[in-house]
């Protein structure tokens, strides 16, 4: 569980649930959906990534990785979205988002961690196909600032260095990223052929972990039509109130 002791001590006095997030973030989407599914009240703290608010001393003092989301629950700070949704589901037991059997629960966690472990492949594809969308490349000055301030996640720093370089990601890197995503989606499509949900027999954190990936990849034209069972699964989820309130309500116009 990614619970940390923040250097920004002001958050230790916060009461209730506070979420630091941005609208078009797949990681933030899954946390907002979980909060909505659980029927929890929470306080919104928007972080504008385009203005580098995540690099402010105030925010890095809360989340040293300089990413969103961050959850603060009565002064307890949790900085990883997979851990956040698990924490919320375990602490607030009403409306469980976990399957009933141990084997199905393990399957749920496998799906959650698969989504987390492959997030850089998804970011690589997304950042390389944002034609007509705001660029996520950093200037040399911005990159220097980011490198100096974000000292906890070397892989993420390297990602931004490659994305912001003059040549960008190579075709080999793009092919590798798409292969990873295709493998994940094929695995999901196979599971969903004979099952309505990714783990167990009802909607769970596994589904919440993955639906935001489809949202952001759809915006950059990923060929989701190649996975018909995945498309049917997606159609059932986007009708849920938690999707409308936790995802659509926070998206910029270009992503709806």
TrEMBL record:
Residues 15-96 form the GST N-terminal domain. GO terms for molecular function: isomerase activity. Keywords: Isomerase. It comes from the Bacteria. Residues 101-256 form the GST C-terminal domain. It holds the Pfam family GST_N_2. InterPro entries: Glutathione-S-Trfase_C-like, Glutathione-S-Trfase_C_sf, Glutathione_S-Trfase, Glutathione_S-Trfase_N, GST_C, Thioredoxin-like_sf. This is Maleylacetoacetate isomerase. It comes from Psychromonas marina.
């Amino acid at each position: 569980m990614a619970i940390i002791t923040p250097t920004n001590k002001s958050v230790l006095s916060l009461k209730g649930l506070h979420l630091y997030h941005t609208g078009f973030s797949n990681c933030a989407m899954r946390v907002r959906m979980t909060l909505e599914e659980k029927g929890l009240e929470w306080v919104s703290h928007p972080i504008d990534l385009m203005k580098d608010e995540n690099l402010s001393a105030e925010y890095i003092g809360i989340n040293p990785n300089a990413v969103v989301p961050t959850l603060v629950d009565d002064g307890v700070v949790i900085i990883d979205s997979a851990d956040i949704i698990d924490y919320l589901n375990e602490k607030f037991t009403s409306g469980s988002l976990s399957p009933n059997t141990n084997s199905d629960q393990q399957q749920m966690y496998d799906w959650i961690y698969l989504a987390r472990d492959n997030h850089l492949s998804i970011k690589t594809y997304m950042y390389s196909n944002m034609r007509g969308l705001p660029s996520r490349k950093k200037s040399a000055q911005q990159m220097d600032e980011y490198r100096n301030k974000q000292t906890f996640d070397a892989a993420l720093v390297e990602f931004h260095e490659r994305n912001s370089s003059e040549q960008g990601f190579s075709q080999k890197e793009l092919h590798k990223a798409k292969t990873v995503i295709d493998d994940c989606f094929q695995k999901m499509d196979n599971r969903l052929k004979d099952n309505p949900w990714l783990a167990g027999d009802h909607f769970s954190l596994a589904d919440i972990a993955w639906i935001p990936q489809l949202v952001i990849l759809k915006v950059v034209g990923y060929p989701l039509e190649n996975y018909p069972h995945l498309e049917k699964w997606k159609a059932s989820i986007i009708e849920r109130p938690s999707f409308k309130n936790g995802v659509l309500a926070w998206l910029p116009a270009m992503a709806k």
